[in-house]
């Protein structure tokens, strides 16, 4: 009987050890499969301050420095072709940081941590930002709708895209890296001249490198048939308004380097009314991707 008793106990112990081992392996698997949080390490400049300079004079000693030029183009919401046309421009005293520190969007937005991808356009600052799970992954300048043809604000989703298409407003305008966000009105973001102020016919103009990035970053819609959408694309939030009766707002940076900063709370307030709709569409896309696999 004792032999049987000890044998039974030994078997019970082995079963408990095996069960514990299985649970440990299960926990490890869950941990291993959990998607790691994406955090980008950006280089911060030693100081952030600005001054206004005459464009032609500044270019004489700085035009050959492409890293400086990229920052200055973005700061003045323009591109290479239009920069020289500007009389005066805002210039940072320190160029040692990454672009994110010279543009107004926050590096992290806690309210967006559940959102896999989103693009946000700020009308007042004429800038955009792309976030992945609350982390800023890309930002740049934009020139949005002019006073006569303002860009509509609110929540949109990317629809269809084309490397090159023709404007519905003027068939002589070729739009490169175009991504539509409002099909009926023909509104989208794409590459086009950035004169340094809101000048478009409601679209969101971008530098070519930025247009290419968003062209790849965002998802197209998934159609059920020719007339019905099964899954919408990447959420796009456009917010705020531009003061067309005042000087360019980024010129204020010379007096106050933080004058255009967009606080995290502002992004949260702008996205909050749309968050449920964004997450519901995200679940549909994830389910569609799973079904495809």
TrEMBL record:
Pfam hit, one: YkuD
Asked whether the keyword Transferase is assigned, the reply is yes
UniProt pathway: Cell wall biogenesis; peptidoglycan biosynthesis
Residues annotated as domain L,D-TPase catalytic = 117-239
The alphabetized UniProt keywords are: Acyltransferase, Cell shape, Cell wall biogenesis/degradation, Peptidoglycan synthesis, Signal, Transferase
Q: Check the record and name the InterPro entries matching this protein.
A: LD-transpeptidase, LD_TPept_cat_dom, Transpep_catalytic_dom
The UniProt record lists the EC number as 2.3.2.-
The record's active-site residues are 190 (proton donor/acceptor), 203 (nucleophile)
Task: Report the leader peptide range.
Answer: 1-20
Question: One MF term from GO for this chain?
Answer: acyltransferase activity
Per the record, the similarity remark reads: Belongs to the YkuD family.
Q: Which PANTHER family match?
A: L,D-TRANSPEPTIDASE, L,D-TRANSPEPTIDASE YCIB-RELATED
Under what name is this protein listed? Answer: L,D-transpeptidase
Q: Which organism is it from?
A: Flavobacterium branchiicola
Its lineage opens with: Bacteria, Pseudomonadati, Bacteroidota, Flavobacteriia, Flavobacteriales
